[in-house]
Amino acid sequence: xxxxxxxxxxxxxxxxxxxxxxxxxxxxxxxxxxxxxxxxxxxxxxxxxxxxxxxxxxxxxxxxxxxxxxxxxxxxxxxxxxxxxxxxxxxxxxxxxxxxxxxxxxxxxxxxxxxxxxxxxxxxxxxxxxxxxxxxxxxxxxxxxxxxxxxxxxxxxxxxxxxxxxxxxxxxxxxxxxxxxxxxxxxxxxxxxxxxxxxxxxxxxxxxxxxxxxxxxxxxxxxxxxxxxxxxxxxxxxxxxxxxxxxxxxxxxxxxxxxxxxxxxxxxxxxxxxxxxxxxxxx
Amino acid sequence: xxxxxxxxxxxxxxxxxxxxxxxxxxxxxxxxxxxxxxxxxxxxxxxxxxxxxxxxxxxxxxxxxxxxxxxxxxxxxxxxxxxxxxxxxxxxxxxxxxxxxxxxxxxxxxxxxxxxxxxxxxxxxxxxxxxxxxxxxxxxxxx
Lengths: 283, 143
What we know:
The complex is a heterodimer.
Chain A lengths: L1 H32 L2 H9 L2 H22 L7 H26 L8 H26 L4 H15 L1 H19 L4 H8 L2 H22 L13 H26 L8 H25 L1
Chain B lengths: L1 H7 L1 H10 L3 H26 L9 E11 L2 E10 L5 E11 L5 E11 L4 E8 L7 E10 L2
Antiparallel strand pairs in B: 1-2, 2-5, 3-4, 3-6
Protein name (chain B): TIGR02588 family protein
Keywords (chain B): Membrane, Transmembrane, Transmembrane helix
Pfam families (chain A): DUF2391 (PF09622)
């Protein structure tokens, strides 16, 4: 009897975590699920780039599971299980929603259906994996574990990783839209410089203002300049690289010349920088 | 009361749980693994068997002709025989009467994805079944 109760309890707890994961998948997936560019990308996106992006996404899921999966994890094995489950939730939630919208129909080819689901599964699985922290109410035991998690989060490598994850998520949401290119055309070089400065400023405000999870004080020897270089400038570099990668994935750089690439990347790096900045709060 | 006892063990349980995840976790991870492999597999297969740069090949066929108040609706099925997607596909139907005069109607379809079909319709005043009607895809843009 007692052993039965003990084995039923973790399953029930996990089921609640799964339900939250579905909620997170829908919330984070909706902006893309209801954007037609995202459906169209599903069938014309280059397959090699899409598969590569899904693998990158999976690696991010495993990393995020380290400190915010819907189960507390203590080993790489559990992170893998967590990431697989989150990706499964992302796929199911995306497929179900697209089917209800009438975007997936029986007459469509397998490639079109799988492609549409695969594109949507990226933000949805991201939502699934961070759902626990966003929606979970914590027991005392979990608060104890949070301390370990917070210590892990404090490490510089993890801080950079979180910035990559946040930048990737926001860049993925915005890169498919035509407006990225349009804004690039509308801006003069001076507007472009202003946008870069604004991005760095916002990023630094978050780095400086929000402080460091799990630490009372900023890392030792971290004066203004130290923070600016090792977090803000590093973070903006991440935002630029992530933007470039996401734009390449969506084929936005094909046939563009260097100045055009610079301008589109600069535009997308703005939301990427914001994503990098707030990742530490959201995740 | 019972709760306190449970929390006292939570540290150990946490370790124990890490070595033995609940059954539901294995099931969800298993379903996730299946879906992950299915998505990756289907996309990789499509990528390998893909167009290799072949252009879209869109065929237009008449699927149904329906009389309506203002004339006739000719429903067209567009089938893309290539795996490359065609965007902004323009279709034209030309009705050739017995006296040699013609009537032309056109329509544009946003996307015809690779290996897929899309439907469109053309309006005519005369009954296309009593005259000669030719439909064809005029052209496309790359997405």
